[in-house]
Amino acid sequence: MNWVNSDLLFLPVGGSEEIGMNANLYHYEDKWILVDLGISFPDETDLGVDVLLPDFDFIQSLGDKFLGIFLTHGHEDHIGAIAHLWPQLECNIYATPFTAVLIKEKFKEKHIDITKHLKIVQLNGTINLDPFKIEYITLTHSILEPNGLRIETPAGVILHTGDW
Questions:
Q1: Considering only CA atoms, which of 109, 99, 160, 108 is closest in space to residue 132?
Q2: pTM more than 0.85
Q3: DSSP 67-122
Q4: Which of 66, 70, 122, 164 has its CA 20 to 30 A from that of 128?
Q5: 154 in helix, strand or coil?
Q6: Which uninterrupted H or E stretch holds 151?
Q7: d(CA 15, CA 20)
């Protein structure tokens, strides 16, 4: 790929323009963050398939350029893939308290202690992770503690609403 290390980029790796499998990468100054890591459910054309997962190959290739996963809320299409794919990354996961409880349960089922990697973000809290400043913005949705993210970089500000 030909981009400048300082380019502000949005790269959907699952879920854009559909319901389910939300996983969106943001890039700036050769660093990457992922917003959500969800599943999608198959339809009648996907015989024998239980869940659909985002394409994870590119994320795995980022190495230390990858800073972590930011979760907007606890619906399966935003968190459902995390326990399946996180073991290949072992990165920090940022979530509000309710979503963090759901995440802990998912990892408990897989017998993985996520405690040191799960970072609780208070409602309307802010995380500074150079070159990103991520502010959680409380929204209304059909689950507790839904959030949009205000992602600030020197190149500009992105509003990621969680559900499109």
A1: 160
A2: yes
A3: EEEE-----HHHHTTHHHHGGGT---EEE-HHHHHHHHHHHHHTT---GGGEEE--
A4: 164
A5: coil
A6: strand 147-153
A7: 5
Model pLDDT for residues 32-83, shown as the tens digit of each residue:
999 999 988 777 776 666 777 777 889 999 999 999 999 999 999 999 999 9
Closest to 70 in 3D by CA, of 19, 109, 29, 126: 126
Residue 164's Cβ-side half-sphere holds a number of Cα atoms within 13 Å equal to: 15
For residue 58, what is the DSSP state? Answer: H
Contact between residue 43 and residue 68 where contact means Cβ atoms under 8 Å apart: no
Structure tokens at 163: 């559900």
Type of residue numbered 114: I
Q: How many CA atoms lie within 13 A of 115 on its CB side?
A: 2
